[in-house]
Amino acid sequence: MIVGKYVESSLLPNEAIVAEAKPHWAMFIAPGLVILLGLLAGKAGGVFFFIGVVWAVFRFLVWQTTELAVTNKRVIAKSGIIRRNAIDVSLTKVEGVSYRQGIIGRIFGYDSILVRGTGVGQIPVPFIAQPEFFKHEVGRTLHA
Fold it and tell me: Could you tell me if residue 94 is inside a domain?
């Protein structure tokens, strides 16, 4: 398992990771297309190339800093580069995990996950690989 630093540092005694998810590589498609457009446009495409590179670097940082895990006690989600969005919800307080997968997400196997917890609100975690697997693991852990 590729446990992130946030998840690893927030584990409680006798807590074990059941499943985790990472962002999907598809989040780099749009920046890659902008970079390609900049390269194909020659000298006039310099602005597109620069914007695409900045966008790709930003997406890479998001990819590196997003963590999502289900443990035998909680659902833990963290995203954000400068401003951190985190939610640690006890399994007894999880109201649900949902996702809506569009056609492109179905083709490539990704979507955004929305974790909802009683008293803590909700946090969307974008571009998660295999969202249906993660949702299934939360449900399986809740009913174990």
Answer: yes
